[in-house]
Every structure is written in C-alpha cells, then in structure tokens.
User: Fold SAM-dependent methyltransferase from Ligilactobacillus agilis.
Amino acid sequence: MGIEKIEQTFTSLKEAVALLQKELQVSYLDALIETGDNLLAKEVHVEDGLPTAEVKTRLEELYANAQLAGLTTEQRRQVMQLLLLQAYKQEKIQANHQMTPDTIGFLVEYLLEKVLPKKQGLALLDLTVGTGNLLTAILSKLNQNGWPKIQAYGVDNDDTLITLASMATQIEQISVDLFHQDALDGLLLPKVDVVVSDLPVGYYPLDERVTQFKTRAKKGHSYVHHLLIEQAVNQLKPAGFGIFVVPKGLFESPEAKGLLDYIQANAYLQGMLNLPQDLFASRRGQKAILLLQKHGSGAKQAKQILLGDFPSFKHKEQFQAFLGQIDYWERNSLMK
Assistant:
C-alpha cells in the first residue's frame, strides 16, 4: 500500500511539473521548485496571466490527486527523490551537483549510529547539503530509530540547490536550518556533534579566501574537498565526528600529505571504507566513507583503524557479515 501511495503521488506531481515546465517555458528544476512552492502555499501562483486558467485548474486537480497529506515523512522524501531523478534524465547536471543516493546515505547513517550515543539535541551539519537528499535520508532514519530532538543544519552556495533543499525539507516536514553561503567562509552557526558531507571534488578557485587554511596547496589552486574536511573539523565540538563521502584515492594525490598532516594534528583517523564498486560507473569514480574524530575529552585513536571494502548490496550474506565486522570494531576497538 505504501508503494502505491508513493507511485500515485509521484505520477501526479510528475505530470504537474511537466505541465508547468511547458506552460512557463522554464527548466525542469525551476518547474519543480514552482510546484513545491504551490504545494506549500496550497494554491497555484499566477503571474502575468500564467499559468492560464485552464492549466491552473488542471494543476489543482493534480495536486489534489497527489494526496500529499496522507504520506509519511519518509514517503514524501522518496517522492521528492523520484522527482529529482527526473531532472537528471532531462538536464545535464554536473557530477558535484547530483544528489547522494540513498544506498550511500543509509551507510553514512549506519556509521553515525555506531559511533555516537543516542542523546537529546544532537547537532548535525551537512556542509555541502545540495538538494538535501543525504541529510534528509539520515534524519528520516534517525527519527525512525527513535533519536530525540535533532538540530540539523545545511550549507550550500548554489541558489538552485539550496532552494530545492528548502522546498524539499518543508514538504517532507523535516526541520533543517539552511544557510546560503560558501561553506569555506565563516560559518554563522554553532559547533556540532557530527558533520556529514558528500564532498565535491575539484579545485577551489578563490585562492585569496583560503590563505588561513592548513590544507591549502603550496602552489596553485587547492583541493576543495581537502579544505572542506578542515572546515568541518573546525566546526565540530571536541570529540565530535566527521563522516565524509570522498574519492577512494583521497590519500593518493600529490597534496595528500598536507591533508594527512592536518588530520594527524587535529583529529583521529578512525576509519575509511570503500563503497561497493558497482555503485559507480567506473573504478576512477569510486568513493569511500572517511571517518574522523576531532581531538578532545573522551576521544582517542581506535586500537585498529576501520578499513575495508563494502561488498555489493547484491550479495546480502556478505554484506550482513561486513556490517557484523563494523559492529565488532565499534565494540572492541573504537570504544575501548
């Protein structure tokens, strides 16, 4: 029944987005944002006579057929994810702007629950929130697992992505404070218990803005993912955790020594797990999950660093056995 509800809502809203896209002559993403605004306002926005009365009536019918009010938070999140996937089919979206798949989001959330005690008022930050799919996947799962009140924050400097994240979190009824800014500028938010981020990969073009960063390149542009790891560690409370989706070869680049030096001086490298290869189009694009813990009271280097390769999700027994190894590591190495 749940799947049928999701399909019905998705089908209605997909048609509504396509109708607005054609009527307003805008991109799919802009039409999706307009659809979200209409749903939140509970009325169809008309400007300069568009959409026409006929189209407005059809949109109202589609919004009613969507029956959004009858969906749970997780079902709403899945609908939003399906609508965003339509954008990737229609528009050329650069790799750094594509949303993090749920398969990766749930692994990040699994590790989060292993390394952090369940507590009231957990403060959680996504430094590169994008459309919000990674953050909302984590929050939805934490809520399902009974975590008490969570204070969540998201940062992104892309106008369209942060607008999509704002629209999605409101529709999904997930509370997130969003900040539209460069994540490498001064952050106007409190220190947090954990930072999660699917880090963009590439060079940061504004050299003059990162002169104070320890992970900056000695010559030329710096790797933005190195800078963001440093910024994340700075934003953590003492003994807080950073859980990052990073390139598998993070520590193989010419600039890796500077990043390692920074980590050794400020945090404990507690783990690095390669994600299943079949999630990625090529070996070169394969990613891993990096687990860091900031220095501070109660934090110490695990007896053994958590290293390994996640088996394919297709191999269920192997995958469950690997999760068992993570459980064993958490009980016998991290917390000892």
